[in-house]
C-alpha cells in the first residue's frame, strides 16, 4: 500500500529522506505526518517534557531535463504534491519560455544550467541542492536520429546516467534516482508482451544506450546500495511532444487538412504496432516508483497495442475526415530495423504502484487534436 506521499510500507517515518539518512528524532510520541517531510526538534526549555516542535520541510526533487515533455509534466505533478522542484537544462531560458511556460509553472521552479554528460557540471548542481529525489530524463530521444548520431546518443543516455549515479555515490547522498528507460531496448519480441524480465535486444543506437543505462542502474542498486530504478516507458504522447515525432506530424497535418490549408500527408509504414499512452499520467507512475520501500524496475504502459494506421484513422476521424483520402505512402520514410510490434505486460506495475493508465490510444488521439484545434469552427475538408 502507498501512503499520502506514496511511500509503501507505512513506517513511522513516512518515508522521510532525512530518516533514511539516519536523521530521526530521539523520541517519538506519535506517528509522523505523511503530508510533508519533516524535521523534529525538542521544544524550548521549560516546555512540557513530551512536547516536540513540528517544523515541516518540503521534499525536494531534481529533474534532469525539465524542459522536455516528461520533465515539464513531472514538475507540475511534484509542485502539486508540495515539492520544491529544481530542474536542469542546457539552456534554462529556453526551458523557462517553453514547456514550463505552457504549463504555467515557469516561475515556480528553480532552473540550473547543467551538462549531463559533464561529470563536474553534474556534481556541482547535485552537491548544491542535495535533492531527496533525482529524475534522469534528459537525452537525445529520437530513435531515427540515433542512427545518424550514435556516439552522441549513447553519451547522452549512458554517460549522463552514469555521472548521476557516481555523483550520488561520491556525495553519499541518501537520494532516490529514477531513470527514464525505453521499451525500444526490448527490440523485436515477435509480438510477445515485454515485462521487467524480458531480456533487451536493442536494434538502434538509442535502444542500445537505454539498455546499457538500464543495466548500469541495476548494478548501482545491487552493488552500491543506491536506491535507483528504471521506468521502462512505452510510447506516451501529449501536446508538448516535439514536432519531429510522427504522432505530432499526423495531428498537425490532419488539423491543416481540416482547416483547408493542405490536402495530403506522406507517411511511412502504417503497419507498425505500438502502445500509446498519455504523458501526464505516466509521470504519476514515475513518482510512485520512488516511493516504494525497495526500488525496482517497472514497465510503464497502457497494456493495449494498436497499429499506427489505427492511430491515423482515429486522429482524422476526430476531425470528421476519412484518412484514406488524405494519406500517401512514402517508402523513404520507412526506417531500417523498425520494430514491427511493441507490446507491454503491466501486471507487476499495477500490483506494486496501484497505478493503471486511464487513457488509451483513442483518448490520446482525441486529446492531441483538441489541444491543436483552434477556437473558431474548422472548415471540413472534402
Question: Can you give keywords for this protein?
Answer:
Rossmann fold, 36% helix, two-stranded antiparallel sheet, disordered N terminus, seven-stranded parallel sheet, alpha/beta, 382 residues, disordered C terminus
Task: Write up what this structure looks like.
- This protein has 13 helices and 15 strands.
- The protein has helices spanning 17-20, 69-80, 92-97, 99-102, 119-129, 143-148, 150-171, 205-223, 246-259, 279-289, 308-317, 347-353, 361-372; strands spanning 37-42, 52-57, 60-64, 84-89, 110-113, 133-136, 176-182, 227-233, 236-237, 265-267, 273-274, 277-278, 298-300, 306-307, 327-329.
- With 382 residues, the chain is α/β, with parallel strands linked by helices.
- The model is unreliable at 3-43 and 375-382 (pLDDT under 50).
- It folds into two domains: 17-57, no CATH class; 60-239 and 277-305 and 343-361, Rossmann fold, CATH 3.40.50.
- It has a seven-stranded parallel beta sheet with strand order 5-4-3-6-7-8-13, with helices on both faces.
- Strand 7 (176-182), helix 8 (205-223) and strand 8 form a beta-alpha-beta unit.
Amino acid at each position: 500500500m502507498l501512503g499520502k506521499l506514496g511511500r509503501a510500507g507505512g513506517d513511522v517515518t513516512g518515508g522521510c529522506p532525512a530518516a533514511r539518512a539516519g536523521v530521526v528524532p530521539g523520541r517519538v510520541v506519535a506517528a509522523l505526518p505523511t503530508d510533508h517531510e519533516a524535521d523534529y526538534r525538542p521544544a524550548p526549555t521549560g516546555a512540557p517534557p513530551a512536547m516536540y516542535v513540528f517544523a515541516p520541510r518540503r521534499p525536494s526533487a531534481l529533474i534532469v531535463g525539465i524542459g522536455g515533455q516528461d520533465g515539464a509534466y513531472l514538475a507540475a505533478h511534484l509542485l502539486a504534491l508540495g515539492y520544491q522542484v529544481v530542474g536542469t537544462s542546457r539552456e534554462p531560458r529556453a526551458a523557462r519560455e517553453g514547456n514550463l511556460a505552457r504549463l504555467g509553472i515557469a516561475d515556480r521552479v528553480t532552473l540550473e544550467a547543467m551538462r549531463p554528460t559533464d561529470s563536474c557540471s553534474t556534481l556541482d548542481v547535485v552537491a548544491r541542492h542535495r535533492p531527496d529525489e533525482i529524475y534522469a530524463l534528459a537525452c537525445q530521444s529520437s530513435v531515427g536520429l540515433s542512427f545518424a548520431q550514435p556516439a552522441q546518443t549513447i553519451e547522452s543516455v549512458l554517460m549522463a546516467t552514469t555521472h548521476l549515479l557516481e555523483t550520488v555515490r561520491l556525495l553519499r547522498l541518501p537520494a532516490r534516482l529514477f531513470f527514464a528507460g525505453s521499451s525500444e531496448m526490448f527490440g523485436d519480441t515477435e509480438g510477445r508482451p515485454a515485462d521487467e524480465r524480458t531480456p533487451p535486444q536493442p536494434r538502434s543506437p538509442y535502444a542500445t544506450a537505454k539498455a546499457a543505462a538500464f543495466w548500469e542502474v541495476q548494478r548501482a542498486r545491487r552493488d552500491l546500495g543506491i536506491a535507483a530504478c528504471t521506468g521502462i516507458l512505452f510510447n506516451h504522447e501529449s501536446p508538448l511532444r516535439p514536432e519531429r515525432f510522427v504522432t505530432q506530424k499526423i495531428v498537425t497535418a490532419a488539423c491543416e487538412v481540416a482547416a483547408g490549408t493542405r490536402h495530403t500527408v506522406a507517411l511511412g509504414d502504417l503497419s507498425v504496432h505500438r502502445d500509446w499512452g498519455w504523458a501526464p499520467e505516466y509521470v504519476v507512475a514515475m513518482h510512485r516508483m520512488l516511493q516504494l520501500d525497495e526500488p525496482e524496475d517497472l514497465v510503464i504502459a497502457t497494456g493495449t497495442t494498436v497499429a499506427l494506421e489505427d492511430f491515423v484513422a482515429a486522429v482524422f476521424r476526430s476531425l470528421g475526415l476519412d484518412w484514406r483520402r488524405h494519406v500517401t505512402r512514402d517508402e523513404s520514410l520507412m526506417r531500417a530495423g523498425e520494430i514491427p510490434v511493441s507490446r507491454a505486460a503491466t501486471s507487476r506495475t499495477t500490483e506494486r504502484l496501484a497505478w493503471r493508465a486511464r487513457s488509451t490510444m483513442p483518448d490520446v488521439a482525441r486529446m492531441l487534436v483538441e489541444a491543436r484545434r483552434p477556437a473558431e469552427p474548422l472548415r471540413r475538408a472534402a
